[in-house]
């Protein structure tokens, strides 16, 4: 029997699991890098005893380790709960639970973030799944903003980071909840049926088992959030050690400028919401209002989220939604900070 001359040669067909192997290799490399960074922070003073003679370096190492170690348990808990939410609670549940009227669905979706934990890494695919199951986009976007900002893990971590200051926890919850509702209603008023919102696709394969979804979501969120936590802790330590105290005092003394600076810093650092309160607490030069802006902006608009939103909902959506989110978050932080802090 002769071979079919039109059949493509076997070498041209990549193995079906090539992409999975490449992804797994990247995950292993990222995990190894994360472990190395944390290990150096924990044991570097013993390994490189001669290099840690300067007070500034010792202060940097102490602050970096303190922020990372304090935040890591909340990060792990948040990732586990977020993965469980994604895997085991069907999106149809939300479609049935929300009011039919879009204007009423927005505050209900925002408030559901209080009892349904989820980090910002997971909030984008979860909100995409809600839209695919018939939830009005305005309500899905309100949930996207509230879930990573006011869930129990985030509020508990904020209380631990700011001991004896319950007003900070209340201010964060009130501000983040208000921002999510305002932006949901704003989208309802301006973006209903908008051509610049691209309806998303499910990131998990059709027919994937719940435990497979749980495992992949947990791995994805932990690798991304853990890396950004390490970067954020290092940046916070560097800011406190390297930047001249007089410059920080000058910036911190101007309320509007300090709020804008920490808001922009939150966008650039992209720290997971379960850990950002510890970084904010370390920025003692700044007022509570400025640090509130850091905690409100970070979970709802940062470079990571902008990239995720661009890939999921399209670039036309991201260039409108991200700036609007930042402006509303800054104004709300100023208002609530003046009122409560």
UniProtKB/TrEMBL annotation:
Q: Which residues cross the membrane?
A: 24-43, 64-89, 138-162, 169-188, 222-243, 255-271, 317-340
Tell me which family the UniProt entry assigns to this protein: Belongs to the UPF0718 family.
Which Gene Ontology cellular component annotation is one that this UniProt entry carries? plasma membrane
- Indicate what this protein is called per its UniProt record: Permease
Kindly give the InterPro entries that the UniProt entry links to this protein.
DUF318, UPF0718
Which residues lie within the region annotated Disordered?
A: 1-22
What residue spans carry the Pro residues bias annotation? 1-16
Q: Which organism is it from?
A: Kribbella steppae
The cellular location(s) given in this protein's UniProt record come to: Cell membrane
Membrane disposition: Multi-pass membrane protein
- Would you indicate the residue range of the signal peptide? none
Entries under Pfam families matching the protein: ArsP_1
Q: Which UniProt keywords apply?
A: Cell membrane, Membrane, Transmembrane, Transmembrane helix
Classify the source by domain of life. Bacteria
């Amino acid at each position: 029997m002769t071979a079919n001359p039109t059949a493509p040669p076997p070498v041209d067909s990549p193995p079906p699991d090539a992409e999975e192997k490449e992804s797994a290799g990247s995950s292993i490399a990222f995990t190894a890098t994360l472990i190395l960074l944390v290990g150096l922070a924990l044991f570097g003073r013993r390994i490189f005893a001669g290099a840690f003679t300067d007070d500034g370096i010792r202060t940097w190492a102490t602050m970096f380790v303190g922020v990372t170690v304090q935040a890591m348990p909340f990060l792990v808990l948040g990732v586990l709960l977020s993965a469980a939410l994604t895997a085991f609670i069907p999106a149809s549940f939300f479609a049935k639970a929300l009011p039919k009227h879009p204007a009423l669905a927005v505050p209900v979706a925002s408030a559901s973030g209080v009892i349904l934990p989820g980090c910002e890494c997971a909030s984008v695919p979860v909100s995409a799944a809600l839209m695919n199951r018939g939830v009005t986009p305005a309500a899905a976007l309100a949930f996207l903003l509230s879930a990573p900002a006011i869930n129990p893990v985030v509020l508990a971590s904020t209380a631990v980071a700011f001991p004896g200051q319950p007003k900070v926890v209340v201010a964060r919850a009130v501000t983040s909840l208000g921002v999510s509702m305002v932006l949901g209603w704003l989208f309802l008023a301006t973006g209903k049926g908008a051509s610049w919102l691209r309806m998303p696709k499910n990131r998990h394969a059709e027919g994937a088992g719940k435990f497979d979804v749980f495992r992949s979501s947990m791995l994805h969120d932990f690798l991304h959030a853990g890396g950004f936590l390490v970067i954020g802790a290092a940046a916070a330590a560097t800011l406190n050690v390297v930047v001249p105290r007089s410059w920080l005092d000058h910036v911190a003394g101007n309320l509007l400028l300090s709020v804008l600076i920490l808001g922009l810093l939150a966008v650039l650092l992209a720290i997971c919401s379960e850990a950002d309160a510890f970084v904010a607490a370390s920025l003692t030069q700044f007022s509570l209002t400025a640090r509130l802006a850091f905690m409100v902006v970070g979970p709802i608009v940062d470079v990571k989220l902008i990239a995720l939103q661009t890939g999921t909902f399209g670039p036309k959506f991201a260039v409108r939604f991200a700036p609007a989110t930042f402006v509303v978050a800054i104004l709300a932080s100023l208002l609530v900070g003046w009122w409560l802090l």
